[in-house]
Amino acid sequence: MTLTNIEHPRELARLRRLALAAQGLLQARPFGRGLAGARKAIQHIGYVQIDTISVVERAHHHVFYSRVPKYKPALTYQMLRNGEVFEYWTHAAAFLPIADFRFSLPYKHAIKSGQTHWYKTRDKKLMSRLLARIRSDGPIRSRDLETTTKKRAGWWDWKPAKKALEQLYMEGDLMVSDREGFQKTYDLTERVLPSHVNSQMPSMEEYAAHIVDQQLRCHGVVSLKGLTYQRRSAELRKAVKTLVDERLAQRTLKQIQLSSGEGFILETGALERPLPRLNKRMMIISPFDNSVIQRDRLKALFQYEYQLECYLPAAKRRYGYFSLPLLYRGEFMGRMDCKAHRKINHLEIKSLHLEKHNFDEDSVIAAFVTAVTRFCHFQQCDSVSLITVHPKRLTPRLRNAFES
After folding, report:
1. Strand, helix or coil at 388?
2. What residues does 185 pair with on adjacent strands?
3. How many CB atoms lie within 10 A of CB 361?
4. What is the largest CA-CA distance in the chain?
5. What is the pTM of this model?
6. Do residues 372 and 284 touch, judged by C-beta distance below 8 A?
7. 267 C-beta neighbours (distance < 10 Å), count
8. Do residues 55 and 322 make contact, with C-beta atoms less than 8 angstroms apart?
9. Which of 99, 328, 381, 390 lies at a 20 to 30 A Cα distance from 117?
10. CB neighbours of 41 closer than 8 A, spacing ≥ 6?
């Protein structure tokens, strides 16, 4: 089994381009525009993570925005209502292509068979009553459920009916049929799932092949650990490793090793294929974007360390509550912490860190200003302010650029 060492900077740069191109982050319109572009984007990248943090536009909309010109948040909910995507769990809550529905079934089966997701205990009597109510009365929202609880401490103290509803959803009896922001509507799976969708339980071999093919398609460069990122099934991890070993032996896949020692897998010949050229466009990336969510991979491939610091006490934050990675010419070269003040339509950049050395300041500043201007429009903001900049010498030039 041949192992190729990636040692020259040009080889590493090409590997990064392969990874970014597979994610649709190098081309201006990799999937097209608007609704059609959003459909193709999620079919290609496999999932879009849903998150509740709202200091800027929510992560699921941000991921589409980064790849699909003329994307609007309403398009995701339109795809959900049209039965083109569905909600379920990958490594986190996510929108997924409806064509991949059957590959959600193994986890649903595991939850129904006793594996814990949120709750160690389940109220089966209440779950049965809820199912009967939905079957007879139609779809239900969690806020439609009656409760005697006057105060709740947070999501961990949901009312019993809400817990039962979520358990039915995780077990697969219910699906999300509609959304208004973070208010979900649930209905019976048999009424939500389009009739043409394959709902047959996949074999473990089929499941492993789906994961390997999907990850190679949307990442280009994968690690064995990353293929089953945050999936707890030992049987699945074993099946994935067996399949990878078979394809390596057949030479349809090849192994590479970086100078730092990390190993990756890619399709044979992938590095020799034509790749999109680098451009001077800067991308503002969500912390939950598919391209950066595997932090170990991000560090190994791009030498970019990232931690989402909103979960840290304020005194321990280095870059800010919700810093956004900045991608420029094939490298993650910095990050900015910002907040959209929606009542006054203002984007506040609390801090900007440009971390690469010896960059072309004129080009980077121009690209950053253009990116932030577009990002403002996406946030429905019409003004921007910049508080702190690192390196500090760039502060006057950047502020002047936004004021001009």
Report:
1. strand
2. 141, 178
3. 14
4. 67
5. 0.93
6. yes
7. 17
8. yes
9. 99
10. 24, 30, 31, 64, 67, 68
Residue 5 has a pLDDT of 87
Q: Which of 12, 191, 199 is CA-nearest to residue 101? A: 199
Q: Is the backbone peptide bond immediately before 194 cis, with ω within 30 degrees of 0?
A: no
Kindly report the length of the chain.
Answer: 404
Residue 257's φ and ψ, nearest 5 degrees, are -135, 130
Evaluated on CA atoms 184, 188, 189, 194, the torsion sign reads negative
Instruction: Quote the percentage of the chain above a pLDDT of 70.
Output: 96
| pLDDT at 121 (0 to 100) | 83
For residue 4, how many other CB atoms are within 10 A of its CB? 13
The answer to whether 385 touches 398, Cβ cutoff 8 Å, is: no
- Three-class SS of 133-165: HHHHHCCEEHHHCCCCCCCCCCHHHCCHHHHHH
Nearby residues of 76 by Cβ (< 8 Å), 6 or more positions away? 38, 48, 60, 61, 64, 85, 95
Assess whether pLDDT exceeds 80 at residue 320: yes
Helix (H) or strand (E) holding 88: strand 85-89
Strand partners, 5: 257
Region 314-327: what's the mean pLDDT?
96
Helix spans in 82-223 (H): 105-112, 124-137, 160-171, 189-192, 204-219
Q: What mean pLDDT value characterizes the chain?
A: 92
Task: Compute the distance between CA of residue 261 and CA of residue 6 in angstroms, rounded to an integer.
Answer: 10
Whose tokens are 């970014």? That residue is 20
Ordered strands of the 331-341 beta sheet = 282-284, 323-328, 331-341, 346-354, 383-390
- DSSP for residue 255: E
How far does CA 81 lie from the centroid of its chain? 21
Identity at 69, one-letter amino acid code: P
Tokens of residue 328, six digits: 């420029």
Report all structural domains of the chain as residue ranges with CATH numbers, in order of start.
307-403 (3.40.630)
324, β-bridge pairs:
336
Angle at 383 between CA 380 and CA 384, to 5 degrees: 110
